[in-house]
Design a protein that fits this description.
- 34% of the residues lie in helices and 19% in strands.
- It is an alpha+beta fold and 465 residues long.
- It has 4 domains: 98 residues, Uridine Diphospho-n-acetylenolpyruvylglucosamine Reductase, domain 2, CATH 3.30.43.10; 119 residues, Uridine Diphospho-n-acetylenolpyruvylglucosamine Reductase, domain 3 (2-Layer Sandwich); 102 residues, Alpha-Beta Plaits, CATH 3.30.70.3450; 93 residues, 2-Layer Sandwich (Alpha-Beta Plaits), CATH 3.30.70.
- Strand 18 and strand 19 form a beta hairpin.
- The radius of gyration is 23 Å and the shape is globular.
- The chain starts with a helix and ends in a 15-residue tail after the last helix.
- The chain binds flavin-adenine dinucleotide (FAD).
């Protein structure tokens, strides 16, 4: 933490570089920057205060801030929409939060080459609204698309529900401009989606959680808006029946943009026959003819798999609520956490059995009603579920033990601790379960190349030795 003299000096330098209105230093202004949607212990809620928050608008302004931080060796925490789930923004060592909220401009829309260049603070939703008149979209439909920014999505390797057809943001990054810890600007490469020349530097910043540099501009591949879209929603006797249908779809070769099988709750309100406890939705888009043909195929597959179709109106309104309200409303209450593990398909049932019948009872955690199972269907697998956090004495310690057991279970099955949502501080000390010492040392070496003084979001992602 900074002493009063250095603090006064840094404040003067920041104000000189950015102007008074772009530097926050009063306690009341800093309080909203003490946490994100990760559940830290209640007693620590306002413990970690940043020293300053800056609101730059341009790359040279970011460079000035980084140079000041480098001179004083103060941590820098780049911030987007603040929606990450793993404590990536918690200023555990104080420092300067670089809030990118004002870096929200579209720099270029390039129609012939189907790309867009933007500043990092634009939200996914704002970008799609901007692109619509051009007949384009990014396709990055995250549950958090109203608040998550391009910089945040890249830095967490954000997951899009249309991943089967369009991939996710990691597949769309063509080139990045990054301010490094030295204050130097790095351009990772030309604005091309395909090249076989240099090392793929931009890949290093995907899921880097702000630990390697501050992204100040991103060039991303965009797609033509589809002529038609549709959604098919079907009910099944349970999650596993829904999942069987999902797996048949996966291996059928038919084009679909994404889908999800999960344990349903309150499905009678959607018209599900009594006793049905599983759901499966499939997203389709393309030309009208393509969508009609895909729909015929999926409808037959569902009937053959014992599913019961919801009406088109119900399916449409379900999806609107799901995208526009549900995910926003779920922005953490502080009482629950979510599983986003990657589990190989053949171990899925075993994973869930062990999770809910062995791990959960041991630590007194319970799944939320109807939220034991969910599986994204497509090229990116994510085995989900939601549970209430442990309560009472020792709750925090129990929660940490649960996280480690989940990490151990997922990695022992050849899976990954987190498909999306990253590491932050939540799973930092579990990385040794997924990566060998050599792999972690290689990551630390990369970090040292970009950030020798460890000022870029220190204490996140990589475990201490
Ligand atoms: C209700 C809800 C639904 C969600 N649904 C999804 C989902 O469907 N898919 C999914 O992937 N995630 C989802 N998330 C998690 C979260 O929204 C994502 O992790 C999101 O991509 C974070 O973006 P953000 O702009 O909010 O980033 P922040 O939370 O602000 O930051 C995340 C990380 O990115 C770094 N960062 C931000 N901007 C920059 C920059 N310019 N340069 C360098 N580093 C930067 C930060 O330092 C931090 O480490 C959901 C969260 C909630 C609360």
């Amino acid at each position: 933490m900074m002493d009063a003299k250095s603090r006064a000096e840094v404040k003067e330098q920041l104000v000189k570089a950015l102007g008074e209105s772009k530097v926050l230093h009063e306690k009341a202004d800093l309080l909203p920057y003490t946490k994100d949607t990760y559940r830290i212990p209640l007693e620590d809620e306002y413990r970690y205060l940043p020293d300053f928050v800056v609101l730059p608008e341009t790359t040279p302004e970011v460079q000035s801030v980084v140079r000041i931080a480098a001179e004083h060796r103060i941590p820098l925490i780049p911030k987007g929409g603040g929606s990450n789930r793993t404590g990536m923004l918690v200023p555990i060592l104080g420092g300067i939060v670089v809030d990118t909220i004002r870096m929200n401009k579209v720099v270029e829309v390039n129609l012939p080459n189907l790309y867009v260049t933007v500043q990092p603070g634009i939200t996914l939703k704002e970008l799609d609204q901007y692109l619509e008149p051009y007949g384009l979209w990014l396709t990055q439909e995250q549950g958090s698309f109203k608040v998550a920014t391009i910089g945040g999505s890249i830095s967490t390797s954000g997951f899009s529900r249309r991943h089967q057809k369009y991939g996710s943001i990691s597949d769309r990054v063509m080139s990045l401009e990054v301010v490094l810890a030295s204050g130097e600007v790095l351009r990772t490469g030309q604005k091309v989606l395909y090249t076989s020349t240099g090392y793929r530097l931009h890949q290093l910043f995907i899921a880097a959680e702000g630990t390697l540099g501050i992204i100040t501009e991103a060039t991303l591949r965009v797609e033509p808006l589809p002529e038609a879209r549709d959604i098919i929603l079907a009910f099944f006797k349970d999650f596993w029946a829904a999942n069987d249908a999902a797996q048949r779809l996966m291996t059928s070769g038919v084009t679909f943009s994404g889908g999800e099988a999960y344990e349903g709750h309150g499905m009678d309100k959607l018209g599900a026959p009594q006793g049905m406890k599983g759901m499966f939705y499939v997203l389709l888009d393309g030309t009208k003819g393509e969508v009609a043909a895909q729909k015929d195929f999926v409808v037959s597959l569902i009937a053959e798999s014992g599913g019961v179709l919801a009406s088109s109106d119900v399916a449409m309104s379900f999806m609107t609520i799901y995208t526009e309200q549900w995910c926003g409303a779920r922005a953490i209450t502080g009482l629950e956490d979510v599983l986003t593990t990657y589990i190989p398909m053949e171990r899925m049932r075993e994973f869930y059995d062990k999770m809910w019948n062995q791990v959960a009872p041991k630590y007194g955690i319970e799944p939320l009603p109807g939220e034991k199972y969910s599986l994204d269907v497509g090229r990116y697998r994510m085995a989900g579920g939601r549970y209430r956090l442990p309560k009472g004495e020792g709750a925090w310690q129990k929660y940490q033990q649960v996280l480690r057991e989940i990490a151990r279970l997922a990695t022992s099955m050849g899976g990954s601790i987190q498909s999306c949502h990253g590491i932050g501080i939540e799973h930092r000390d579990n990385m040794d379960l997924e990566y060998s010492k050599a792999a972690l040392d290689a990551m630390r070496s990369i970090k040292r190349v970009f950030d020798p003084d460890n000022i870029m979001n220190p204490g996140k992602k990589l475990p201490e030795r």
